[in-house]
Amino acid sequence: MEKGLHLYNTLTRKKEHFEPLNAPHVGMYVCGPTVYSDVHLGNCRTFISFDLIFRYLKYSGYKVRYVRNITDAGHLEGDRDEGDDKFAKRAKLEQLEPMEIVQKYTLGFHDVLRMFNTLPPSIEPTATGHIIEQIEMIKVIIANGYAYEVNGTIYFDVEKYSKAYNYTILTNRNLEDMLANTRELGGQDDKRGRLDFALWIKAKPETIMRWQSPWGEGFPGWHIECSAMSAKYLGEEFDIHGGGMDLAATHHTNEIAQSEACSHKQPAKYWMHTNMLTVNGARMSKSAGNGFLPGELFTGDHPLLDRGFSPMTVKFFMLQAHYRSTLDFSNEALDASEKGFRRLMNAVSLLDKLVPSTDGNDFDLASLEQNCIKAMDDDFNSPVVIAELFEAARIINIVYDGKAKIDAAELEKLKKLIQDFVFDIFGLKDEDASNVELNSVLDMMIDIRKAAKENKDYATSDKIRIGLQGMGIQLKDSKEGTTWSKI
Ligand code: AMP
Ligand code: ZN
């Protein structure tokens, strides 16, 4: 394989050498969550996978503008412009304003991703914040002859478009088969072709989320937001467009069609899709009722769970699979990941205690690093990197036990490898380390208080005791010394 990063491009159905349009700058757009309910663990898998990709691109020296949108309007139930608006339905159910629903679930989404220690995107635009851009784009598509209006609703003309462009470029499906497999037009919509989809939907009297447009009051279709926002922030042509595999057939296919019908350009050079998280072989989804909420997973409060698992255990479990493989969720698999993650973190915690040898060295860490880079360069192969990191853990353990020697230069390489791959690229963290830090801070506070008491500085000693009490920590003095406990 040629040197450098290679990634699998859904568009060409092969691994390609990554050549950004405008190196070192890279534009990456990932379809974000629809914030009408909590994200489930399947959604998290996709966002954690793109976080890995974002982090590795940065490690490789690229300056990445990572745009991940928030879908907060225009998403109807079902993919076919029918059914209720998900936000309005949820708002009614929870007796909240639709924008309260959006705010609530956006905050929840951010909290969850923070627990998984993912980096925030560079820009996180919302559909409702870009209604004007969407209307402008629809106007151009109409002017170019690829969309038509029926009664205040604008439809994309797939048949006309597919005469000039390849509508199934992303999935390689046969258009005739697709037409044959698509349901007859329902009586309630007025589109001309079975595959036509709405760019703008006329508001019904009861529609709450509605905007003025040249075609009357309405709201945007789901697909147009991503075309409009990716073009706005990354340009008509950019490097990477990503999302879960389930989005390729409809959402991304329609995104490509909209962008080409508007600017005559295929928007992204590389289309990347993550595979699904499954439960007993079935795709995890909200509608199937098998969608674990991350909170349920952390506490173990779910009928399918034997017990709770920490965010980093779950993240490690995900990184142990390649992003293009399916990953089946099970208690046993998480048990095994927890053990593996602990083994790795225990070794990492010994790193600072290793004493470099001055009379010999048994290791070559450069090759270990090269193997990790090679694996990541091969379409972000995180499971292979994890196998290399276990080798690093083995080295740390045998050096710590005095069974092998490592010199100062190799020890530095070992530390860099762990910092780069465990912390910077995988974004893992030692969850117990925070307790270690708390322990040392409290030890120090107890020492300061002891010294203050010895100096009869009772104001300071009381300030420490009362201050800690306010933070939920109780100090207890005894003949043996002072101990602490959480209240
Ligand atoms: P949604 O909020 O449903 O629009 O989904 C947000 C993202 O999660 C999309 O990129 C989906 O493709 C992805 N996604 C949905 N279900 C799963 C799953 N079971 N495994 C992995 N990704 C998923
Ligand atoms: Zn999208």
Architecture blueprint of SSEs:
Elements: E1 6-9, E2 14-17, E3 25-30, H1 41-59, E4 63-68, H2 86-94, H3 98-115, H4 131-143, E5 147-150, E6 153-156, H5 158-164, H6 175-181, E7 197-202, E8 218-220, H7 222-234, E9 238-244, H8 248-263, E10 268-274, E11 277-279, E12 282-283, H9 294-299, H10 311-319, E13 327-329, H11 331-350, H12 365-377, H13 382-400, H14 408-425, H15 433-454, H16 458-470, E14 473-478, E15 481-486
Helix pairs in contact: 2-3, 4-7, 7-8, 10-11, 11-13, 12-13, 12-14, 15-16
The chain binds adenosine monophosphate and zinc ion.
Adenosine monophosphate (AMP) binds next to α1 and β9.
Structure commentary:
- With 487 residues, the chain is α/β, with parallel strands linked by helices.
- It folds into three domains: 6-274, Rossmann fold, CATH 3.40.50.620; 278-425, Isoleucyl-tRNA Synthetase, Domain 1 (Orthogonal Bundle), CATH 1.10.730; 436-486, no CATH class.
- It contains 16 helices and 15 strands.
- The strands form five sheets. It has a four-stranded parallel β-sheet, sandwiched between helices. A four-stranded antiparallel β-sheet has the order 5-6-7-8. Strands 12-11-13 form a three-stranded mixed β-sheet.
- The longest helix has 22 residues, at 433-454.
- The mean pLDDT is 92.
- Bound molecules: adenosine monophosphate and zinc ion.
- Zinc ion binds next to loops.
